[in-house]
Write a structure and sequence with these properties.
With 459 residues, the protein is of the alpha+beta class. The protein contains 16 helices and 14 strands. Strand 1 and strand 2 form a beta hairpin. Helix 11 packs antiparallel against helix 12, helix 12 crosses helix 14 and helix 14 runs antiparallel to helix 16. The longest helix is centred in the last third of the chain and has 23 residues.
């Protein structure tokens, strides 16, 4: 069955229709609204912009991983049974007597409900009337205090035992959400910061509210993850990265982290944002998931995509190299394509503030050095010998056009910034001892490798 929808955005002075989306069994088609082409606003993404597409229909051959355009894929929570966002939206659909068939039909219905007001600047609606109604209903609602009734229902939900989401829905409405395994909600809080009160995300310019992502800890699967993510955010800030404000809290015994959204400006208006996964997938059909690339190929994309991907390629490649080294030193192990994004502010595109830097190597099921290859590390070279860590780092520096002395200086700086990292991890009260030991083993091993790289003879 063919499906139709519209894409709007409120990235400009007022909400405006970007264009029409048509989806068949084989492809997605998008046409910019002629009036939108007269504006100077961006399109869905870097490669799907008015300047590139113009009046031509934009066609995307559907795949299993990208059944819609890559820029829209992130608006649909992953289709696994334990995804909190998906369960919440499906509960809402059931409440309004919408029971789609399993598969893309379900994804499509979810997109119609949760495809607007989410992360980024693209808003998807079933039709223009729905869009206008949603944007017109923009008066901020009263704040709701997260009291015991909310906490009890949520606590049941987090253990995947509560099939009734009415308590949450009645409290905050069918709020748009974001992907990921860790329970998250998009909300707003008072402009002064977290005080336990929440409301739906903002829809119009305001300076007295702050839009946030609220993450909840699944203590049965990832105990201590909130403390670990907060510490990782602190470490990245100390290393000079732009990091959003955050507030640690506990809601009736459930640890949570409220993080300010950087896809909104100081007046809570959307800014252009796109994940590296989306940018690269739009231009390379071999990109089929979060991990199906390498850090080397990110450098290629920065150099070759002239839309532009970013406006300062030199700074961007240094950013990626520094992020990767710090991910090694903090035991992140999950710096994949969807955990890197670009944003545009005042006409300049650059990498976004840090998000999701959690030291996942503290949990044995995620204990891996890197989710993607770098510098051919561990692969066989032409002489039938495997590429070692030192050679891989050297290759990556060359790919990023970073001199070896500068690369060593970056590594030395990050080693110094993280010198007391494990002591700070050990001081976290909610992280189990086993997780602390697992993380320490991983971090100490990579520190030795990087320390040796600093003194190894140049090749």
């Amino acid at each position: 069955m063919d499906r139709e929808a519209v894409i709007w955005t409120s990235i400009g002075d007022a909400p405006v229709k970007m264009g029409r989306l048509n989806v068949t069994d084989e492809e997605c088609r998008f046409n910019f609204n002629p009036a939108y082409l007269e504006t100077s606003l961006p399109g869905m993404g870097v490669l799907h912009s008015p300047g590139i597409v113009g009046r031509n229909p934009l066609v995307w051959k559907r795949t299993e991983y990208f059944p819609v355009f890559p820029e829209l894929k992130s608006l649909i929570p992953p289709g696994n049974e334990q995804n909190f966002q998906r369960k919440l939206i499906l509960a809402y659909l059931a409440k309004i007597d919408v029971t789609p068939a399993i598969g893309f039909e379900t994804d499509w219905e979810i997109l119609m409900v949760a495809g607007h007001g989410g992360i980024g600047h693209n808003d998807v609606f079933k039709d223009d009337d729905s869009a206008r109604k949603w944007y017109d209903d923009n008066e901020p609602v009263a704040f709701y205090t997260m009291d015991e009734s909310f906490g009890f229902s949520l606590k049941e939900f987090l253990t995947w035992m509560d099939n009734d989401a009415d308590m949450i829905i009645n409290a905050i409405g069918p709020t748009p959400s974001v992907g990921g395994a860790v329970p998250k909600l998009l909300l707003s809080i008072p402009g002064g910061g977290w005080d336990g009160r929440i409301a739906l995300p903002t829809k119009k310019s305001t300076n007295d509210r702050t839009d946030i992502i609220l993450k909840f800890e699944q203590s049965n699967q990832y105990p201590g993850i909130i403390d670990l993510e907060a510490l990782a955010l602190d470490i990245h800030k100390e290393a000079g990265f732009d990091v959003p404000r955050y507030w640690k809290t506990s809601i009736n015994g459930i640890n949570a982290l409220a993080i300010e959204r950087f896809d909104r400006n100081e007046f809570n208006k959307p800014v252009f944002m796109e994940t590296v996964l989306s940018v690269m997938a739009c231009g390379d059909k071999s990109i089929t998931n979060n991990y199906s690339s390498s850090y080397d190929r990110i450098a290629d994309a920065i150099d070759k995509i002239s839309a532009p991907f970013v406006h300062d390629p030199v700074k961007a490649k240094e950013y990626i190299f520094k992020r990767l080294i710090l991910s090694f030193l903090t035991g992140n192990g999950d710096l994949h394509l969807e955990n890197l994004s670009i944003i545009e502010q005042e006409g300049e595109r650059f990498f976004s503030p840090v998000y999701d830097p959690t030291p996942m190597r503290a949990y044995k099921i995620h204990d891996m050095l890197s989710p993607m290859p770098f510098g051919n590390y561990g692969e066989f070279a032409t002489n039938d010998e495997m590429v070692g860590f030192d050679e891989a780092i050297s290759r990556l520096l060359k790919k990023y056009n970073i001199s070896k002395p500068k690369g060593r200086a970056i590594i030395e700086e990050l080693l110094d910034i993280t010198k007391d990292y494990l002591q700070r991890v050990n001081a976290l009260p909610n992280v189990p001892d086993d997780s602390k030991k697992t993380l320490a083993t991983a971090v100490l091993s990579v520190r030795k490798k990087l320390e040796y790289f600093l003194v190894a003879p140049s090749s």
